[in-house]
Amino acid sequence: MSTKNCNERTLMDYCPDIKVLDCTMRDGGLVNNFAFTDEFVKDLYQANIKAGVDYMEFGYKASKEQFDPKEFGKWKFCNEEDIRAIVGENDSPLKISVMADVGRCDYKKDILPKKDSVIDMVRVATYIHQIPAAIEMIEDFKKKGYEVTVNIMAVSKVNTDDLDAGLKLLARSSVDAIYLVDSFGYFYPEQITKLAKKYVDIAEASGKVVGIHAHNNQQLAFANTIEACRNGVSLLDATVSGMGRGAGNCFMESLLSFLKNPKYNETPIIDFVEKHMLKIKEEGAVWGYDIPYLLTGILNSHPSTAINFIKDKRTDYGKLRQELMDME
Amino acid sequence: MSTKNCNERTLMDYCPDIKVLDCTMRDGGLVNNFAFTDEFVKDLYQANIKAGVDYMEFGYKASKEQFDPKEFGKWKFCNEEDIRAIVGENDSPLKISVMADVGRCDYKKDILPKKDSVIDMVRVATYIHQIPAAIEMIEDFKKKGYEVTVNIMAVSKVNTDDLDAGLKLLARSSVDAIYLVDSFGYFYPEQITKLAKKYVDIAEASGKVVGIHAHNNQQLAFANTIEACRNGVSLLDATVSGMGRGAGNCFMESLLSFLKNPKYNETPIIDFVEKHMLKIKEEGAVWGYDIPYLLTGILNSHPSTAINFIKDKRTDYGKLRQELMDME
């Protein structure tokens, strides 16, 4: 992974170091229990290639001892043969990633040596207090031959001293990229600027790059993603139509139309929306900005309360706010 | 109107010069042909007072010679008696505004002297080439005793020389505030920064303030509004649930939760959403982010093509894109 950042990130220019990662199946999988049809996955793979997307995340590498494969779609586990059934040997410029949660992945067994896998990159998702465990995983994956990122979740709940200490530990690890993750959709662009600068300073000093993964609780996922980009973050997560847990993510179609590198093209993604996303919504998948997510966002809370509120078809927002305040 | 801006607009502080304007009935009226029930309007008026909103725009002062009152709801015309039926003498801190379009308003007749009206502010909406006509209206309204703003529409289509010339003319007028208007939802935050600084420099030098009115085509209305605010813009437009033409506007509930002045409170607005906005959507009013508006936004086009596309229940986005490109 290149660590070279463009000096001047102006709107009309583009920076070759910027990479886009599609995590529709991973974050969107949390919406529909990973029940994507093979046609959906094949078409998304082709759309991403045509659109110039750099990485496509197929899902999680979850432990089959902790999670019953009968209860989830196959992309919760991302078996090697399931990915290959879609991509073959992946003879394309699109790289493939999977996510491995600290404590929820039998990684020693389930992450194969790179030479036996079509996967290019493993993303380690960690809470701040799990960073030592995350580093064990990072080193294992690097030794196996993968590109590796680390995604520190729920940073809006982490105090600055702990974050600084965690970032320092990660800077000393072999990880290629460190992700700024706004799990709760809490941050405003001006906070993202500050955090992005902090992450970029620490990462660059140790030859790493920084990524951003934003949530749309306050309709700021896209704005925060391009704000981070403006401040040197170079690995940008997005999902088609923003599909992702709760309020969802940065919209891929917006991000690609923003980026000026001529290799990016939002049209194949918009065609994919027409063919698949309208249907998936009609069939009942629910995500995207709504008042309950605004409330969890501004109150810096996990979206699960809002997800259940919406699932129960409740609209008593005042009561939800009270419930959230009681949980603080 | 105070021209004094806060020096340091940090997130945790607040600036007493910031004012919030609710234009749900005016921009939202373009969605439902101004057919709001009296209960809706009365509840919105009360919600705005409780929420600390500074101005509430009731609608347009449209010419009854050009527009047949039988074809529109009453808030297209904002008769004095209709406003008074809601607010009485408006014994509240909430000020009342109306919009007057250049060339579509019999303003000499229809805008009464302030002493005979419960309206506090008139907002003059103008295209760049109409600025001399706008200035005639501004001077008339100022003489009649109103606060007056001027809203230069479709700025994303205006070349910089013309904009500079127009702003200079307006700086010499008696207008109190000049609005930066992103009619097509075209601008990214970094462009808003640049424009906001330009407007603020010119306005402050002549003792005026600057406002912002954003559209949500790229889901950036809220982000652009707070970005403008960060750069000295002090009159912030928003609508409940973003209700407004096409992709709609900056969400009032997001904006109020962002602002740190303790006088602002988003809860009365969220209660209003629960009571009225869910119903108005169920009854068929359509607005808000959607792919067709993304396309008109990124192509810097008027939203009307997208509005018709959605009204016709079309989803052939590729064809829409082609149609929009052919119109360039």
Structure, explained:
2 copies of one chain form a homodimer. By secondary structure, chain A is an alpha/beta fold. Chain A has 2 domains: 19-282, Aldolase class I (TIM Barrel), CATH 3.20.20; 291-326, no CATH class. The first copy, chain A, is 42% helix and 13% strand. Chain A has an 8-stranded parallel β-barrel, surrounded by 4 helices. In chain A, helix 8 crosses helix 9 and helix 12 runs parallel beside helix 14. Chain A starts with 18 loop residues before the first strand and ends with a helix. Chain A binds chain B through residues 10-11, 188-191, 216, 218-224, 226-227, 230, 251, 253-254, 257-258, 267, 270-271, 273-274, 278, 291, 294-295, 298, 315-318, 321, and chain B through 10-11, 188-191, 216, 218-224, 226-227, 230, 251, 253-254, 257-258, 267, 270-271, 273-274, 278, 291, 294-295, 298, 315-318, 321.
